Input
Amino acid sequence: MGLVASRSCCSESAEDDDDDDEVGVDQDAVICDTESSPEAGLERVAEQRMKEHKIHPLPALTSKNPSARIRTSEGNFLVQLFVESMPIAVSNFVYLARSGFYNGTRFHRVQKNFIQGGCPNTKDGSELKPGKGKAPPKSKFKNLKNGASIKRDSKGCITDEWGYNESGEFRTKSKISNLAGTISMASRGRANSCSCQFLVNATDNYDHDWWNPTHKKEDRWGYPVFGIVTEGMDVIRKISHLKPHESIDEKSKAQAVYVFSVTIYGTNLQD
Output
């Protein structure tokens, strides 16, 4: 099933059961499973959920945003990236993809509510633990919004542009909900811990939102959204049901879903 633009949100809330591994529409649109929900009253239900879960809408889709086509062993999907709202996260992802960083990686966490990938430790031949890999330490890339040079830290992580600022106030520009179809930065749940891994939400995962009250109480930062699937949502749902609630590791390679390539469109990259 592809995307269905609607003001309703029809998928169930999700749970994230592993804090150890890194683990996130048109501006009025939300992914909706029309096969499991009646049409009548959907807008009213959506508005109620917006209040209950403090959902924040996505930025407007625009041709000015770069896109990424992710080709996997189970099919392809296209993601539009929110470069205006999340320039550091988007630029980080774009430059890694352009370098071939994601080619040959696997989705190492496959659950019914989201799929997670982007870890270099999942490549064939790696003896390192899946889910622990990061981008190259102290490597550099350019901010696609303003051209500034950005340097990853000694662990290969990027600086947060979401969450709370030093005064404890929300950075509202990056306040984008983890609705079904969105793609988020994976993190350790701590400040400045996002690197290369990402997750694609197969359902609405309100508990992933960085402004969720539980994150502030536990001094955690949630999973910031930086794009949305615009084609191929059926592929995401297919992958998410291959092996629900179980990680894909070296012992379950028969179920492995590979990322063959990530191709970037709509931006002029400079080294």
About this structure: Confidence is low (pLDDT under 50) at residues 1-20, 23-40. The helical segments are 42-52, 87-98, 213-217, 233-240. The CA atoms of residues 195 and 215 lie 19 Å apart. DSSP finds four helices and eleven strands in the chain.
